[in-house]
Design brief:
It is a single chain. The protein has four helices and 20 strands. By secondary structure, it is mainly beta. It folds into two domains: 6-149 and 315-328, no CATH class; 153-283, Immunoglobulin-like (Sandwich). Strands 1, 2, 3, 4, 5, 6, 7, 10, 11, 15, 19 and 20 form a twelve-stranded mixed β-sheet that branches. The chain has a four-stranded antiparallel β-sheet with strand order 8-9-16-12. It has a two-stranded antiparallel sheet with strand order 13-14. Strand 13 and strand 14 form a beta hairpin. The radius of gyration is 22 Å and the shape is globular. This is DUF4249 domain-containing protein. Pfam families: DUF4249. It comes from Hymenobacter cellulosilyticus.
Amino acid sequence: MSTLYNMSLRTAALGLLSLGLLGGCETVIDLPEPEHTPRIALKYILSNYETTRQHDELADTRTLFVSNSQRIFSNKQARGRKDATVVVLDENGTVVERFQPVEPSAPYDTFNIGYYKPTLKLKGEPGRTYKLRASLPGFETVESTLTLPAVPVIESAAFIKNESKSNGSEVHGQLSLTVADDPNATNYYVAFARAINSQNPEYQGWSGVEVAEDESDLEVDLGQFQLSTINSFNGFSYGLYPYADVNVNGKSFSLTTNVRYYDGYCQQPNNCQRPDYLEVYVTSMTRETYNFYVARQRYNDSEGNPFAEPAPLPSNIRPGYGLFGGMTDAVYRIKLR
């Protein structure tokens, strides 16, 4: 079982065991542990995105992380591995990307263990097929193959600022977006936006565009096209809501939502680092990527509840665990002010 999702089964088992123990001192529940063969577990998203920033949270959500599976009842802390060899190959078997471990920022830094950075700066090409191959000492080599999906078509996007709600540090407004769906394929999408300063590519104060407070308590519906957020923790994006074109195949579809973003700062009165564009992203993804994120949303919603419906994460890594995902971005820029 993968370290990416074995916690749900472990929590459920321990929860049932606790109920048995609380029910009476004479109650004994024997939970046999399933057989376990250690496997490589990893997550990596290949895309056509090319970052120009030193610290880029969007790129961080797609970074390579490598670990290994462990027994369900193991008490060891799940840790990443820094001794993996991982490559991406094209249709001809040519290596087009290699990775090296992210170096710790300090001797006591364990956060970055398991994360890898690309060395060849591969920018995936839509329609091309890629194979990921990973190995660890003492583990069976794993592989996975995908074809990067086509670039989505953004028909229009607009932002209307709400002057009455905006203030010196935060801008409020309404974001609208329309996408033309490809009728010749089953498509899976996700939409998000960020505010940027186009004159300073290394600007570190860029802001993710988030759904405003008046709509943030709305129930998440994975069957509805809605705005996601760019939030990263341990390399995993949270607040990401994928959408399938099941009910709109071949038609245009849209979203309109109230949003907010951070309006930057002024180092000096005549030197303000404020965003001047909204970058609106519509990203197409492979079916396996869609299934992974939908399942992970269900897993997060269970909040460790042992009585919740089981929410295992699907895997397309063979014979290991995890995800080799593919995403293709289309970007629409909206001029601010």
